[in-house]
Amino acid sequence: MGEQDALNALGVLGEWIWGNDLETIVFAQAFGHEKTLIFRFSRDNPQRSQSLTTRIVNCYHDLTVDSTSATFPNRLSMRVAIWSAVATVWAECSDKPTVEDPDVVIDVYDLGSTDLFSRITWSICHEDLFNDYIDLLLPPSQLSVKQPMDTVDFKSLIRLNQLGGRGCTTPVFTPSDPLSQFVFKGIDFRTFLNSYESGHIHEEVKIYYRSTELTAAAVAHTHFVAHTYHMDIKPRNLLLDADLNLVLIDWEQSDAPVTTAAPEIDSTWDVEEIPAEGLTTTLRYSKYTGQERRNMPVTTPGDNGWNVWNVFLVWSKQCPKALELAEVFSLGRCMWMLLRQPDMTAFNSIMSTEEVVEDWESSEDIPAHWKRTVQDCLKHDPNERIGLRELVAFWDNARHEVNEF
Hints:
With about 400 residues, this protein is of the alpha+beta class. It is built from 11 helices and 12 strands. The strands form 4 sheets. A 5-stranded mixed β-sheet has the order 1-2-3-4-5. A 3-stranded antiparallel β-sheet has the order 6-7-8, with no helix packed on it. Helix 2 packs across helix 3 (about 75-95), helix 8 crosses helix 9 and helix 9 runs antiparallel to helix 10 (about 370-375). It is elongated, with a radius of gyration of 25 Å. About 25% of the residues are buried.
C-alpha cells in the first residue's frame, strides 16, 4: 500500500508536507485536476490529545507525548493519514468557487467521530498572511527590465505539477492558450508559508529580485559585459530551446553544486591579482587564517563553505579574474559530464568536488582536442586554466569544423 493511494485514486498527487516553527501546525500541498491546494492541520486543545490533527502535529514535530495514542508509530503512517484526510475532503472542497483564490488555505478538522468520512471536515480560510506575502513582492513598475513587457494575473494561470527545486518551479499555461506552456519560477505562497517565521523568506525574495535582473542582463556576456556570475553551473541548468540553442537557466546566485564547484571557492581562500611578465597578471591565492567570517545569512540552507562565506560576492568586486576562472572550472566539469556521460547517480554521495575523478573511458568518439580543452578547464591551479574568451573561441571553431564536415 502506498502512502498516497487514496489521493491518487482521485487523480491527485501530494506534493509537499511542512510544519511551522512554533510546532503547532502541519501544512500539506496537493495538485490535481489543474488545481493546487494547501491544507492546514492544527494542534487541538490539550483535552483532545488523540485527535487526528493533534497526532499529525505531534508526530511531524517529534513532540513529547504522554501516550503513544497521541502520535503515530512512524512518519510513514503519519503521511498516510495526512494524504487520506486530504483525499476525504478533496472532492467537496475543490469544487468551491473561491478555493483557488491565491490567499486560500484549507483548514482540516477532526470532529471526533469513529468514521473517517464523517469525522473529517474542512473550511476555507482566506489567510491574512497573504497580505504580508504580497508586501514582499516588487510591483512590475520597479522591475529592472527596461523593455515593455506583458504581465499575467497569477490567479489566471493554470498550474501543473511542481518540478521541485528552490522556491516554486511550476509549468503553467493560460486558459486562452493551453498549448503554450511557460514556467513560473519564484516565490509562491507555499514557499512563503514555509519560510516566513524564520525570516529566511526575505533572503529568498532578494535572490529572486537579483535573478530577474540578471536574466535580463544574460543576453550580454555574463562576465565581460554584465560583470556578474552564475555560480550554479551544472548540466541540469542547461536547456535546449526550440532552435536547439543551449540556454543557461537558474540565475539565483545562491548556491553552488558540489560536483561542479571549483575547489578554490570553498571559503578557505583569499586571492589577489598581481603583475606578471609583460602586461599579464597572475592570481596569488592564500589560505585564510583569521576568525570565522560570514557574508551569507545564518538562515542560508546548506553546509558547504560557500553557504557561510560566499567568495563570489567578494571576488566579483575585488578580483573578477578569479571569478572567471572558477566558472571556467564549473563549465569544464559540465562539459566532461556531457561528453563522457558518466553514471550521474554515482555523484549522489559526493561531498567535495575533489572526489570527482574525470576519466574518458568509452569516449573514443570524442575528438582528442575537445578532451584537451576540457582538461584545460579543470586544472587545479586556476592560473593554468584556459580563459573564458579562449574557451568560447575554441568551441566556436569546433562548431564550424562540425558544420564543414
